[in-house]
Write a structure and sequence with these properties.
The chain is 54% helix and 0% strand. It is an all-alpha fold. It is globular, with a radius of gyration of 28 Å.
Length: 371
């Protein structure tokens, strides 16, 4: 009996030891898991884990530095900051996806990239034999409606139009296949940008099954080969996001209205073939210029911050601004209504119904910039 009791006690001790060992292991694993860095928690300090930074080593917030510089009245000449008051637009965003720590470097890279992936500004005259600028405008206007119907991201639309123009710069196409090129380009852009891209059948359906699935897939392959699978070129929307943030810094009224108006004017610019001669960054800057003029026509629409962050002076924007202004007033492209109808909706603050003065003062395009 005593031997059986001793054996039972040993068994209990063994179980207790295993339980304590398991609890100890769980505590160690929990402690180790706290050292893992969640992506949303990554700071602007590169190549260093959060657990490896002591309180003394952690960098002081850049906001405090700006406050000290402003109080001292000293100008800031580092890249990406105002020379007059030390404001750093890039460092103001708390959104980790805005990449505040190296936003200016990304912008410089995008400016280089936009030069390499440009379509021919006169491909209809030089390459195409059966297409016209009006046909292109009708196609883009329809694609804007498709993007709205399928709730696609704005970047998908801009990329699709970019693919169309780049393809037509090197490949002759008949008018019967222009819509096929449009849906195939949007299919590629959807696969590139969307989390859950639309399938081929849906793009066939949106054309009332004018084209078969095999035809869409074949055109998709032709576009990819023509683009050499270089799909990630910067668009007007890429630069518009940055310029909108800068523009909103000194804006007194609804910032959301300014943002939607910029989106509306940018999509209007997609309709006009003549805008292809401008870089996407210049078109984005012209859109901000005209948006500010529309909402506050008595104030100069450009300032030092916008000039510094965009790299464009008012005089270099004039031709593009005038074209988009004519589009806004329906002096050109008036028969293309999908964009106008889209931005008449209340969710977009009805910005397409805003009136703009018929003339822009020439003084606004002079290179003397107000603060």
């Amino acid at each position: 009996m005593r031997a059986m009791a001793d054996k039972e006690n040993c068994t209990r001790v063994t179980r207790l030891s295993k339980k304590r060992a398991a609890e100890s292991m769980a505590a160690q694993l929990q402690q180790q898991s706290k050292k893992r860095v969640v992506l949303g928690e990554i700071t602007s300090v590169p190549n260093v884990g959060l657990s490896q930074i002591s309180e003394q080593q952690k960098p002081k917030p850049r906001r405090a530095k700006r406050k000290v510089l402003k109080a001292a009245g000293k100008g800031v000449t580092e890249k990406g900051k105002h020379e007059d008051n030390g404001t750093d637009i890039d460092a103001k965003s708390d959104d980790p996806q805005m990449c505040a720590a190296y936003d200016s470097e990304i912008y410089e890279y995008m400016r280089q990239m936009e030069q390499k992936s440009r379509p021919l500004p006169d491909y209809i005259e030089r390459v195409q034999k059966d297409l016209s600028a009006n046909m292109r405008g009708i196609l883009v206007d329809w694609l804007i409606e498709v993007a709205e119907e399928y709730v696609l991201l704005p970047d998908t639309l801009y990329l699709a139009v970019s693919y169309i123009d780049r393809f037509l710069s090197t490949n002759v196409l008949t008018r019967q296949k222009l819509q096929l090129l449009g849906v195939s380009s949007m299919l590629i852009a959807s696969k590139y940008e969307e989390i859950s891209p639309r399938n081929v059948e849906e793009f066939c359906y949106i054309t009332d099954n004018t084209y078969t699935k095999d035809e869409v897939v074949e055109m998709e392959a032709d576009v990819l080969k023509s683009l050499k699978f270089e799909l990630g070129s910067p668009t007007i929307k890429t630069f518009l996001r940055r310029f909108t943030r800068v523009s909103q810094e000194d804006y007194k009224t609804s910032k959301l209205q300014l943002e939607f108006l910029g989106d509306y004017l940018a999509e209007l610019s997609l309709l006009d073939y003549s805008c292809l001669k401008f870089l996407p960054s210049l078109v984005a800057a012209a859109v901000i210029f005209l948006s500010r003029f529309t909402l506050q026509p008595n104030l100069h629409p450009w300032n030092k911050a916008l000039q510094q962050y965009s790299g464009y002076k008012p005089s270099s924007l004039k031709e593009c601004v005038m074209i988009i202004h004519d589009l806004q007033l329906s002096r050109r492209g008036g028969v293309l209504i999908s964009v106008r109808e889209k931005y008449k909706q209340h969710k977009f603050k009805c910005v397409s119904m805003l009136s703009s003065p018929p003339e822009i003062p020439d003084s606004y395009f002079e290179d003397v910039i107000v603060q």
